[in-house]
Amino acid sequence: MSSAKTSDLEVDDISDIDITLLTLRKPTELKKVIESIPKPNRAVPKNGLPLWYRLGLECKLPVPKMPEGKIVFSRGKIGEDVRRLGLGSGPRPTFDLADPYCYNVSYDYVPEHDPHLAHHFAQKPARNRMKILGFCTKDGRAVCSLKEFNQYRKYLYNQFMDRIHMEMKKLDERARDDLTLKRVDVDVARRLQIFTKVERAREHLERVAQEHADEWAEKKRL
Predict the structure, then answer these.
(1) Which InterPro entries does the record cross-reference, listed alphabetically (predicted)?
(2) Residue extents of the structural domains in the chain
(3) How far apart (Å, rounded) are the C-alpha atoms in residues 62 and 49?
(4) Distance CA 97, CA 99 (A)
(5) First vs last Cα of the chain: how many Å apart?
(6) How far is CA 63 from CA 51, 52, 71, 89, 105, in A?
(7) Nearest to 139 by CA among 154, 127, 148, 155
(8) pLDDT of residue 87
(9) Which is the most buried residue in 14, 141, 177, 204, by most CB within 10 A?
(10) Distance CA 201, CA 195 (A)
(11) CB 76 within 8 A of CB 142
């Protein structure tokens, strides 16, 4: 009796697994491309909340009520070009005119992240003054507001999507090349088939003509 119940349970479990497998979606090419491209590693501050790591780059960081200064928003160290370093490894961003009036992302000049001013801000008096004013942390990271950090996330999201578009464009070009090669192969096979038919017909005509010539020669000899 117990063995029968166990077998029934196993059958039910197998059917549940089959139903689950049927409901799973097959990953699309776009999803594969998105998963293959590494996400920017500076989209969340160092002392960020665990929920923020699960948010997409297109989402703004929500800040719950908490004591002031518990979370320090920083895009990087002083003197770092965060717009390049934040993208991680991969191709560097190129000159882009998709948003010339900065409606989507604000590209305000930030002196703390100007590499040419790194030497100035590295001097002890300037660094101490910045710490007193709250412009940088003890470990040399430039402090920014939540609004500025969300703008930075938006910039990273745009660059991330640009990389996805570039990869999709490469896939389209590769698929187009493969399609062209297939068409060439089909055309070559068609031409080869026509050539083979013509050659067979020519050989057949030559054979028939030779047979007729032999018959005519035999008749003449008789």
Answers:
(1) FSIP2
(2) 40-173
(3) 10
(4) 5
(5) 101
(6) 10, 10, 9, 29, 21
(7) 127
(8) 60
(9) 141
(10) 10
(11) yes
The tokens of 53 are what? 């790591």
Element containing residue 143 per DSSP (H, E): strand 141-143
Q: What are phi and psi of 204, to 5 degrees?
A: -65, -45
Beta strands 141-143 and 74-77, pairing class: antiparallel
The residue assigned the tokens 């882009």 is 96
> For tokens 């960081």, what's the residue?
61
pLDDT tens digits, residue range 99-138? Answer: 777 777 777 888 888 889 989 988 999 999 988 888 888 8
Residue with tokens 């090669």: 181
Q: Which residue do the tokens 């040419």 mark?
A: 116
The H-assigned helical ranges of the chain are 2-23, 29-36, 82-85, 118-122, 124-133, 146-221
Which of 159, 201, 196, 209 is closest to 39 using CA atoms?
159
